[in-house]
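look at this fold:
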Amino acid sequence: MSPIQFQDYGGGKAAAPADCAFIYSPDLEMGGYPEACPFNTHRAGKTRKILEDMGLLSGPHRREAAPVPLTEEELLRFHLPDYLAALKAGQEGRYDLASAAMGLGTPDCPIFPGMYDYIRLAAGGSLTGARLILKGEAHIAFNPSGGFHHAHAGRASGFCYINDVVIAAMEFASAGRRVAILDIDVHHGDGQQDAFYERNDVLTISLHESGRTLFPGTGFESEIGRGPGRGFCVNVPLPVGTYDLIYEYAFLEAAFPVLRKFDPDVIMLELGMDTLAGDPLAHLNLTNNVLADIVERVRGLGKPILAVGGGGYHIPNTVRGWALCWSVLIGDHAHQNDLGVGLGGVMLENTDWLGGLRDRTLLSDGGRRGPIDDEVRRVVAAVQRTIFPIHGLA
């Protein structure tokens, strides 16, 4: 088998610093999902603590911004009235068969006190970030409490009740901006795909573990959009065990050329850290190095970026990964490999780590690389065959 080779795909480090907003409120540390739910709502606060201790929230071109809760009018731009009524009822402990049909009351989407108000605040951070960008008050915004990409107009799914990604993208599109959503969460971004499947002003790109082995069971390479949206939906499903080098190959060969050709006015990034090796709910074998390198390349395009958190169920790895991506977004690489930072066993309570934000290099199982590489090459070839001609790519 020929080795994996990369061309010069452009992107890279942006030359000039940009105004960056980290979106957070201590109110997000109160209440939230039940403790038994794998979706940990304290990840954003832990991330902020690391960034503050490392001096990555202070200085020129950096600011913190408080999320503004979504209003009912804003929610109704995407979500259905009956569904919002069910969310309000659930907040007050009222639940019925109609609520169950909307995906509420499951282990993934439990009913809990204050749920409607909590998720309006967490999801509202993404719209807050979008508005900061539209007003010219930020070039880059990051809402680690957002990224609820499985929520549908009338149905909760996969820890997601309100789809902040869709609502923020609609805000950009309503302002006449061409939007690209790049989703690198391990789960397929089915909510935004469904919302924009027939539109060509919003490009959705999702790299994820294949639906053959992981929830939500969608996102195959044959799902490319419909009608005016044909070719504006890009899916790159990946096999179990996907490792850094082949993941980067998939991004550079299948996703990045379409992203550049689309030439969006703004890029939205879903930075789920459940792609990382050791995540308890998924089966990829990545380090945060490849994710940071992708963020660096996207930042190098010079477009405004709205980043959101998403998944990540190994908490120390998720927190470190988000902190690393923020350092890339703001163009500050000083502490990424600094073993004297003191993260290990102190800030992350992770005695397996020496310090710094970047992961150590992982060695993929050599006996499995062949089948993994073959499957990824097949998927990339399918994307190139079906999507590239629509965009005038060779």
About this structure: Residues 268 and 306 are 5 Å apart (CA to CA). Residues 20-391 form a domain with the Arginase; Chain A fold (CATH 3.40.800.20). The two ends are 23 Å apart (CA to CA). The chain has twelve helices and eight strands.
